[in-house]
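We were asked to recover a plausible sequence for a given structure. The inputs and outputs are reproduced exactly as logged, with field labels preserved.

PROBLEM: sequence recovery
POSITIONS: 595
GIVEN STRUCTURE:
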């Protein structure tokens, strides 16, 4: 373990670490605008320059490996002046518009300029041509704000394996965007928003639904309901300077009421509904495979993550028959709200507005898919990200931190702990197995505190095996059958699983895929900046929420039992098939307008 001196402080670091990593591990802050945790450094922004004694020039700390005995200065006059010049040059090409930019409160470039004492742009000159791309339902690109840090390129290519964004041309002419200067809607972008989550400025942002939601709330003829995804409760507090992983479920409910929503519901309700439908579908596929000898029905893949659905439609269409036909909990909620709930309350469905609060930008695309109109209307009208909800609460002057706890409305606000863990990578699989195993054996899942430890945590691909012993008579043919499951988060990991299944090196019965690293808690619409430390804190909070619930299995949720008795009748029945299920199709990949 080599030792080095940073700012006259001797520290010990791990072999292979860079100066930046060694400094961060000891709480020494070095600014950077291009570095991404866990990815090879680019050294593109040059903001992380430090002085290494004996070196001829200042060195980029993100890409300079530690050497025994190295002496480093991170904040002397020479370093500060070099950083200031770098940032001034970035500002000279940057269409800041800071008073109007959607990133005005959390812009890394603006914050860094303030830290360096920059109050005047020293270098005035020609700016590159500006183009605004708002072609997709979820994202907006503004090339005038881009500082060419390439974070979006790294996350799109290496983390998501999509490759919708590239650096094009060279030098002053460099442009970051889809190949051939196409718009995002012309290339296979899955609209996951990870690019927006890592962008240090306002060059890529979510397409805002805030104004539309305000308008709906102010319309006296509309009854506006809101559903909140499980990941929101562990992250929304960060918009108000609370620590990552602070559970704010009750305060969130109160804030939504103060914003003017007529009813506040929980997407967890339809997460439980998803488990009943998806679990039944999985068991149906198992029966047809083991009893009828049908081929190609397994593995079954979860279908809750809309970015993953698009990824499969673009890049792995041969697996589309293996995707669960279940809609996501968001879309199930919209269909149920505009049919069952509207009827129960005597509200004309055309006057019922469904707003979602989601950790995911791809949900904005999902709600506009042609097939998401099973209620006879657009099932979900508007989607707010966690960040957008934070902005609305601030705009309304609500003192979020000091709000009292509120309660979700019934019946669509009652849920189990199994629904909470949908937020985490591995959570959908664990929730499904809690129910499926008990349906097959008549006994609870034989895992400590109902948790399946091998599929928890942030490893990119996780596997588990569960052997079924002494099933009930109906499932006797599964006695001593070992069910093999896998969990992947981040689409590059999903691609590895799919490629392994294709070449025969991997064999599973059930696979969960989440688009974003960490699952929904690391979604593209969550508060920035999401590190693994932040993901772990949010995940821990979600498991705490689950473990504190009196009901922790989806099939034991009394509100779910009620909706089947009064409305849906049975899982995979005629009504649930119409409202809660769908199918997907292959999409055109390069250079063509998406269908």
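RECOVERED SEQUENCE:
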């Amino acid at each position: 373990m080599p030792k080095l001196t940073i700012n006259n402080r001797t520290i010990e670091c791990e072999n292979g670490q860079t100066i930046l990593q060694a400094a961060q591990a000891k709480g020494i802050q070095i600014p950077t605008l291009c570095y991404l945790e866990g990815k090879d450094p680019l050294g593109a922004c040059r903001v992380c320059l430090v002085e290494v004694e004996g070196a001829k020039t200042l060195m980029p700390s993100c890409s300079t490996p530690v050497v025994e005995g190295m002496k480093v200065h991170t904040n002397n006059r020479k370093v500060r002046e070099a950083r200031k010049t770098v940032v001034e040059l970035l500002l000279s090409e940057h269409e800041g518009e800071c008073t109007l930019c959607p990133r005005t409160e959390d812009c890394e470039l603006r914050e860094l300029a303030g830290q360096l004492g920059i109050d005047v742009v020293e270098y005035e000159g020609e700016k590159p041509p500006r183009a605004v791309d708002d072609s997709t339902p979820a994202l907006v690109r503004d090339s005038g704000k881009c500082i060419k840090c390439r974070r979006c390129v790294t996350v799109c290519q290496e983390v998501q394996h999509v490759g919708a964004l590239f650096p094009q041309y060279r030098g002053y002419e460099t442009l970051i965007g889809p190949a051939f200067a196409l718009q995002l809607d012309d290339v296979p972008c899955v609209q996951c928003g990870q690019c927006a989550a890592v962008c240090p400025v306002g060059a890529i942002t979510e397409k805002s639904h805030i104004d539309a939601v305000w308008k709906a709330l102010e319309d006296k003829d509309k009854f506006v309901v809101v559903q909140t995804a499980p990941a929101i409760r562990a992250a929304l507090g960060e918009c108000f300077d609370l620590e990552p992983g602070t559970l704010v479920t009750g305060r969130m409910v109160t804030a939504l009421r103060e914003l003017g929503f007529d009813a506040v519901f929980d997407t967890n309700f339809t997460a439980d509904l998803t488990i009943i439908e998806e679990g039944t579908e999985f068991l149906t596929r198992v029966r047809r495979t083991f009893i009828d000898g049908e081929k190609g029905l397994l593995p079954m893949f979860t279908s809750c993550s809309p970015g993953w659905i698009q990824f499969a439609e673009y890049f792995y269409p041969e697996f589309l028959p293996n995707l669960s036909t279940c809609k996501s909990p968001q879309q199930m909620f919209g269909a149920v709200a505009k049919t069952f709930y509207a009827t129960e309350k005597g509200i004309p469905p055309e006057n019922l507005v469904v707003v979602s609060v989601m950790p995911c930008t791809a949900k904005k695309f999902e709600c506009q898919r042609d097939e998401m109109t099973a209620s006879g209307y657009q099932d979900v009208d508007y989607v707010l990200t966690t960040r957008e909800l934070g902005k609305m609460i601030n705009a309304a002057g609500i003192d979020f931190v000091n709000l009292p706890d509120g309660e979700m409305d019934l019946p669509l606000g009652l849920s189990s702990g199994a629904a909470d863990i949908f937020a985490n990578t591995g959570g959908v699989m664990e929730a499904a197995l809690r129910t499926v195993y008990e349906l097959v054996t008549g006994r609870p899942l034989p895992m400590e505190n109902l948790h399946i430890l091998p599929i928890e945590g942030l490893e990119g691909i996780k596997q588990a095996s569960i052997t079924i012993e002494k099933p009930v008579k109906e499932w006797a043919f599964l006695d001593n059958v070992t069910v093999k499951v896998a969990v992947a988060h981040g689409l590059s990991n999903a691609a590895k699983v799919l490629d392994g299944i294709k070449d025969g090196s991997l064999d599973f019965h059930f696979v969960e895929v989440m688009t974003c690293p960490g699952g929904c808690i690391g979604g593209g619409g969550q508060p920035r900046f999401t590190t693994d430390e932040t993901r772990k804190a949010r995940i821990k909070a979600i498991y705490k929420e689950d473990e504190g619930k009196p009901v922790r299995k989806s099939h034991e949720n009394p509100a779910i039992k009620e909706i089947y008795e009064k409305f849906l009748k049975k899982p995979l029945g005629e009504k649930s098939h119409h409202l809660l299920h769908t199918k997907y199709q292959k999409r055109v990949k390069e250079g063509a307008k998406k269908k």
